[in-house]
UniProtKB/TrEMBL annotation, chain A:
Source lineage: Eukaryota, Viridiplantae, Streptophyta, Embryophyta, Tracheophyta
Molecular function GO labels: metal ion binding; protein serine/threonine phosphatase activity
Serine/threonine specific protein phosphatases domain: residues covered: 57-62
Name this protein carries in UniProt: Serine/threonine specific protein phosphatases domain-containing protein
Keyword Manganese: yes
Keyword Transmembrane found: no
TrEMBL record, chain B:
MF GO annotations: peptidyl-prolyl cis-trans isomerase activity; protein tyrosine phosphatase activator activity
Entry-linked Pfam families: PTPA
Organism: Ensete ventricosum
Annotated protein name in UniProt: Serine/threonine-protein phosphatase 2A activator
Low complexity biased stretches: 1-25
Superkingdom, taxonomy of origin: Eukaryota
Predominant localisation class: cytoplasm
Reaction(s) catalysed by this chain's protein: [protein]-peptidylproline (omega=180) = [protein]-peptidylproline (omega=0)
Recorded coiled-coil stretches: none
EC number(s) on file: 5.2.1.8
Amino acid sequence: MSDLDRQIEQLKRCEPLKESEVKALCLKAIEILVEESNVQRVDAPVTVRYPDRITLIRGNHESRQITQVKDLKSKNIFDYLRCGNVAAILQLDEGLNKQFRVFEAAPHVCIENILFSSKIVAVLMLLTCIPMQEPRGIPSKKPPPDYFL
Amino acid sequence: MADSDPSAASPPVSSSSADDTSSPPMLCAACAGATASWSSPPLWSDSSPPPAYRPIRAPAINAPTATASIVLAPVPQPLPVPPAEPPYRFEIPSKRISSPDDIRHFHSSEAGRHFLGFVAALSRSVRGRKLSDPAPSPLPAPLSGLLSLLHTLARWIDEIPPLPHASRYGNPAYRSWHARLTDEGHGLVVALFPPVDELHPAADELLPYLLDSFGNAYRIDYGTGHETNFAAFLYCLARLGLIKEDDYPALVLRVFSTYLDLMRRLQITYSLEPAGSHGVWGLDDYHFLPFIFGSAQLIDHKYMKPKSIHNQDILDNFSNDFMYLACVAFVKKVKKGVFAEHSPMLDDISGVPNWSKVNSGMLKMYKAEVLEKVPIMQHFLFGSLIKWE
């Protein structure tokens, strides 16, 4: 648990985690989420009866704009987790008991605060707000205008 | 689907706040601002869709960000100009476009397709050619006539100096320059024709296109619509058989580049206002065609790539040969500040991998951003040579 405390403190200081740490957190989260009743494994090929009711979301990068602007190989945890309009938070208390909460879009949510609390591990799977300026130190390749693609 | 495990966590219908940890009101460690409220988040429901996200920055062009339709749009292709056949029925041209339906009508008509095809053909004709490449000597008559017409107009700038004027744009001396063009224009156009009686009335049809090629006298502005009128003027000359396909390279590299030099002098001397410019979200305040022709010039160049425009040495040394570089150099000279900030479109385009893609993109963009915009095309004139039908 001390590892998780340390990670929380680090994030509160707006310092990014190591890629391996984020990967481990994500794997743990997958372990937990896959047991949810509305998660279902589906193998290709998939036949879709009502295609306009389906939205395909590629992982955490829901919008083309985000995918374009963000460097997908970025090591900053914020980039892995920014997407969409819903925040879903898993809480694990010391007994590793799960609690699952869903929040609708909040205009400005500081990631550090969601991860606050020494007794809670919260892995943020989806975040709400999109930054209005480039995060420092992350090179992003500007795409050419659509006419030139 | 696995059965619901009652012991598993499930999304709460109504949430409880995180107050069971009884923590004091939290402040952001980074900005010390108040944090989002934890209590009673709104219920997620299908009838209340999530709010739209705000994009990182405004769209780079005033077009809907419907990218598929843009990416999949066909690249305008060169077309031969259909010759106008006698008996001629020249008329004073008039405006016809006032709605998007009219735009669609224009682009599906013969006139629309061939005009765009003419621009694409001009672009094709200067592939890999430098401005300093030798032109046929002597230049064919209509082309040399056009050059002397443009030189005459340039001489008038010296004879009509700018007046002392307080505001940023729009020196009123421009109106005198333009009035002179209106007075003497007819004679200048007639001088372009061979001495054939049948063609003489054509000057009445061509003159309005020429008069609209250098800006608006009342508003003292200039924009891509005026530039398009000059292209329409050249198109009419081509329809009359005075300009042939073999002449296209010289038409672009000599005549159009002289027109460009003239326009830059007018813009600077009389502080012409950019007409309908989209500011940082447009390609250029005044021009579009030199970017089409200029990118064609650089196709298959051995070492210059689109990103070469960031190299000041290249701009300094090769602007004389390549229109695109001259345009970028002009923008950098006239505008202050970081290039990426005052000209983000040109900056973004410098990331395109090769000039061929730049050129095809420019042609597509010209059709969509100039020829399909009502505020520009509402001034486009239709007569017997560019027919509205």
